[in-house]
Design goal:
Blueprint (H helix, E strand, L loop, with lengths): L1 H14 L16 H22 L3 H24 L8 H26 L8 H29 L5 H23 L14
Helix pairs in contact: 1-2, 2-3, 2-4, 3-4, 4-5, 5-6
Amino acid sequence: MYTFLTELLGVLISVNVEISLFYKEVYFNNNWFIYNLYNLLFFLYFYYVFWSYISSKKSKNIIKTGAILFLITSIINPLAQSFKTMPQLTSYIIGAIVLLWSIYLYTIDLKKDYGVYFLKKDLLSWLSLGMGIFYAGYLPIKILRYYMTIYDFKILWVSKVHLYLILIMYLCFAIGLVIMRRRKLPSLETEIE
């Protein structure tokens, strides 16, 4: 729901000059502040989710170290690029890499515990699949788009690939929600009621 509201607000700001987070006219359709804040919260939330469901202490420490690296990068990045008006490319790259690594560690943990890399009725497996495909494909696009903006050129297929990656990710999320089985909380021995 948070993702949907963020996307909706971002679109409204970019297409409607009467809705703006800034008073200066030059920034009226600028929505980077919303997306930068979203990325910060999104990555930290999923680091916590993967950290919670992984049983290996070593993997948990790797995710915690990655989250700290992401936070440090997120604090330093606005010194080079305005948090309000520019995409935080460096922190996004670090965030996506740490998320992909967290997904990898989760799949390794599944293999160790269940003998498989993917559990069909496990929502987190489906979320991992969707986000893994999306971020592995979108990370190079994000970098390319940043440089396309700086050097003022366009590559037409980039938007289509981005759209397909979004569709695949949300399709994985939807399938996972439909076929998931109740899961135990990481710290409890009973099923979630």
